Amino acid sequence: MYYCLASSESIQCNGNMHYMQFDPENTGYISTEKFRNLLQRYGSELDPHKLEVLLALADNNSEGKICYQDFVNLMSNKRSNSFRQAILQGNRRLCSKALLEETGLSLSQRLIRHVAYETLPREIDRKWYYDSYTCCPPPWFMIAITIVEVAFFLYNGVVLDRFVLQVTHPLYLKNSLLYHPQLRAQAWRYLTYIFMHAGIEHLGLNVVLQLVVGVPLEMVHGAARIGFVYIAGVLAGSLAVSIADMTAPVVGSSGGVYALVSAHLANIVMNWSGMKCQFKLLRVAVALICMSFEFGRAVWLRFYPSAYPPCPHPSFVAHLGGVAVGITLGVVILRNYEQRLQDQSLWWIFSSMYVVFVLFAIFWNIFAYSLLDLKLPPPP
């Protein structure tokens, strides 16, 4: 089974031929002694950090045996939770020097190392990411969503002949992308409102936060996971407004941005000793100040006299919906680098809570507005 350790493909091609040699009883395990002999024999074909991880796995395993599937998952960059526990619960410390101490790295290697230290709290994960990252695919989601948001803002700026506080223009609400309580039956508005921003001051801070935080997170966790957190925050933001601020429209990508930033900050705080990014206290403070400033701007704008009464300015509640997603679903994702989320009980708990919230919001939007007999602003 372990005839060649260079890649998961070679394992699967040559594995069945040699498996019975190491596991004659077909138990799915081989002894750590045989496992270590194989590493010593074929270790030169591995990335040095992967070899170090495998040696840690062999030394830390108290049961004297290694699961074949854990090994295959490891070589395929799909590490199981049991594999992580086998290393983290062991007594052996990784013997080689920290990734930060390595010298002679190229510019791209230093960038990958920097991203690893920015986002991952465990040295073993940082080394694994450093060896595994290929920049294929690149962090396309956050870059693409940012380009589209900027393009829509510039287009609206030209059409409205206004770039600062666009939301005060009489024609602003006529756009078919933003969320409006009178048009809540148009389901796409619960997501497309992210392409409309109140002004350049609103767009600027959101773009900076989602690029500075979102791109490194996507490089580590992938577009699927980070995109899920972002879109979940966006949807939670508009649904939260439809429940808690029922007469207000919604614009801006703050729901998604706050989901990512809140998840990242919560992950840093929860793994404070393990996070080795420079000036982390100062940077957390700066991030919180920026978020507070943007949230304060949104609150001020919400209660600022509207230029087109009786319709109020956009709501700030979407920010809170994004934060709620970030500190629940987002934290679970960021804390489980390269792990199967379906194996995490918290993932199912928070996912169920999110689904219940979405279903509740749907029924609320269908029935509550008529039952409460609200006086909604006229449709644009």
Automatic annotation (TrEMBL):
<dbReference type="InterPro" id="IPR018247">
    <property type="entry name" value="EF_Hand_1_Ca_BS"/>
</dbReference>
<feature type="domain" description="Peptidase S54 rhomboid">
    <location>
        <begin position="185"/>
        <end position="335"/>
    </location>
</feature>
<dbReference type="GO" id="GO:0005509">
    <property type="term" value="F:calcium ion binding"/>
</dbReference>
<feature type="transmembrane region" description="Helical">
    <location>
        <begin position="346"/>
        <end position="372"/>
    </location>
</feature>
<keyword id="KW-0378">Hydrolase</keyword>
<keyword id="KW-0106">Calcium</keyword>
<keyword id="KW-0812">Transmembrane</keyword>
<feature type="domain" description="EF-hand">
    <location>
        <begin position="20"/>
        <end position="76"/>
    </location>
</feature>
<keyword id="KW-0479">Metal-binding</keyword>
<dbReference type="GO" id="GO:0006508">
    <property type="term" value="P:proteolysis"/>
</dbReference>
<protein>
    <recommendedName>
        <fullName>Rhomboid-related protein 3</fullName>
        <ecNumber>3.4.21.105</ecNumber>
    </recommendedName>
</protein>
<feature type="transmembrane region" description="Helical">
    <location>
        <begin position="140"/>
        <end position="160"/>
    </location>
</feature>
<feature type="active site">
    <location>
        <position position="319"/>
    </location>
</feature>
<dbReference type="InterPro" id="IPR035952">
    <property type="entry name" value="Rhomboid-like_sf"/>
</dbReference>
<dbReference type="InterPro" id="IPR002048">
    <property type="entry name" value="EF_hand_dom"/>
</dbReference>
<dbReference type="InterPro" id="IPR022764">
    <property type="entry name" value="Peptidase_S54_rhomboid_dom"/>
</dbReference>
<comment type="function">
    <text>May be involved in regulated intramembrane proteolysis and the subsequent release of functional polypeptides from their membrane anchors.</text>
</comment>
<feature type="active site" description="Nucleophile">
    <location>
        <position position="254"/>
    </location>
</feature>
<keyword id="KW-0472">Membrane</keyword>
<keyword id="KW-1133">Transmembrane helix</keyword>
<dbReference type="Pfam" id="PF13499">
    <property type="entry name" value="EF-hand_7"/>
</dbReference>
<dbReference type="InterPro" id="IPR051739">
    <property type="entry name" value="Rhomboid_IM_Serine_Proteases"/>
</dbReference>
<dbReference type="GO" id="GO:0016020">
    <property type="term" value="C:membrane"/>
</dbReference>
<keyword id="KW-0720">Serine protease</keyword>
<comment type="similarity">
    <text>Belongs to the peptidase S54 family.</text>
</comment>
<dbReference type="Pfam" id="PF01694">
    <property type="entry name" value="Rhomboid"/>
</dbReference>
<feature type="transmembrane region" description="Helical">
    <location>
        <begin position="250"/>
        <end position="269"/>
    </location>
</feature>
<feature type="transmembrane region" description="Helical">
    <location>
        <begin position="226"/>
        <end position="244"/>
    </location>
</feature>
<feature type="transmembrane region" description="Helical">
    <location>
        <begin position="316"/>
        <end position="334"/>
    </location>
</feature>
<dbReference type="GO" id="GO:0004252">
    <property type="term" value="F:serine-type endopeptidase activity"/>
</dbReference>
<feature type="transmembrane region" description="Helical">
    <location>
        <begin position="281"/>
        <end position="304"/>
    </location>
</feature>
<dbReference type="InterPro" id="IPR011992">
    <property type="entry name" value="EF-hand-dom_pair"/>
</dbReference>
<dbReference type="InterPro" id="IPR017213">
    <property type="entry name" value="Peptidase_S54_rhomboid_met"/>
</dbReference>
<keyword id="KW-0645">Protease</keyword>
